[in-house]
């Protein structure tokens, strides 16, 4: 299994997840920097993501939508707060209306990605901070509605460590 | 670990805020731990464990009660509290759900990288 560490801090409202991959730091960075690769893993099963704007420079905005099985297409956005390719990326992630413009009424979170070299590849850590428990619950509720957790059985497989890695 | 999506998403936002606020204090977490043994605890007895006034401990218990983390019962002059393990499970459930989202993503990254190594066509560096 590639996930090596998960830390959930209900007091600080953060979750940190660390995984290791048998590829270089540069290759792991490409998973985020190349929108066509990002699209292959960002959206959950049944909800592939399409990035219509993608730019990982500080201040830039990315926009994407997901295509659901019923033709629904929830939109999301990123705002890049800091970027030091290929090792660090800090962004705000939120939902938006159909025009892809951030909706201030919708919740958002902050993510910090760090990629470090290991003896046999690279280690990727993503720390997500939620501004409040209410937002966290709201995001997860929306995620449910949008089918972000559609494949509950698949998730169970992952948790049981039976997924192919 | 079971991802109990239903229980966590049924929580209203305000309720969740109360939960996490209640858990955000070391004394309250300690009281909670002490009361999770399945027995009733007298608030006066609990108060002796902490270097603070009875009123202060009572206040902490009230926060825990309003978050649903403990239940309180009055018996004569005694106030008896008991921890509610189900409430903690729900709080943890929220972060578990988010963990599941990321485990799914990392799993897909693993598949993507594996595809690449079996198909040398992919431009690997």
What's the structural blueprint in terms of helices and strands?
The complex is a heterodimer of chains A (about 160) and B (about 120).
Chain A: E1 3-9, E2 14-21, H1 25-33, H2 35-38, E3 49-53, E4 61-66, E5 75-84, E6 88-96, E7 108-118, E8 121-129, H3 133-145, H4 152-159
Antiparallel strand pairs in A: 1-2, 2-8, 3-4, 4-5, 5-6, 6-7, 7-8
Chain B: H1 5-9, H2 13-23, H3 26-35, E1 41-42, H4 43-47, H5 54-66, E2 70-75, E3 78-83, H6 85-118
Antiparallel strand pairs in B: 1-3, 2-3
Helix pairs in contact in B: 2-5, 3-5
Q: How would you sum up this structure in a few lines?
A:
The complex is a heterodimer of chains A (165) and B (125). Chain A is of the alpha+beta class and 165 residues long.
Question: Could you explain how this protein is built, in words?
Answer:
The complex is a heterodimer of chains A (165) and B (125). With 165 residues, chain A is α+β, with helices and mostly antiparallel strands. Chain A has helices spanning 25-33, 35-38, 133-145, 152-159, and strands at residues 3-9, 14-21, 49-53, 61-66, 75-84, 88-96, 108-118, 121-129. Chain A has a single domain (3-158), classed as START domain (Alpha-D-Glucose-1,6-Bisphosphate, Chain A, domain 4). Chain A is built from four helices and eight strands, in the order ββααββββββαα. In chain A, strands 1-2-8-7-6-5-4-3 form an eight-stranded antiparallel beta sheet. Chain B has one domain (5-117): Winged helix-like DNA-binding domain superfamily/Winged helix DNA-binding domain (Arc Repressor Mutant, subunit A). Chain B is built from six helices and three strands, in the order H-H-H-E-H-H-E-E-H. A three-stranded antiparallel beta sheet of chain B has the order 1-3-2. In chain B, helix 2 packs antiparallel against helix 5. Chain B is elongated and about 70 Å long. The interface between A and B is large, with 48 and 41 residues.
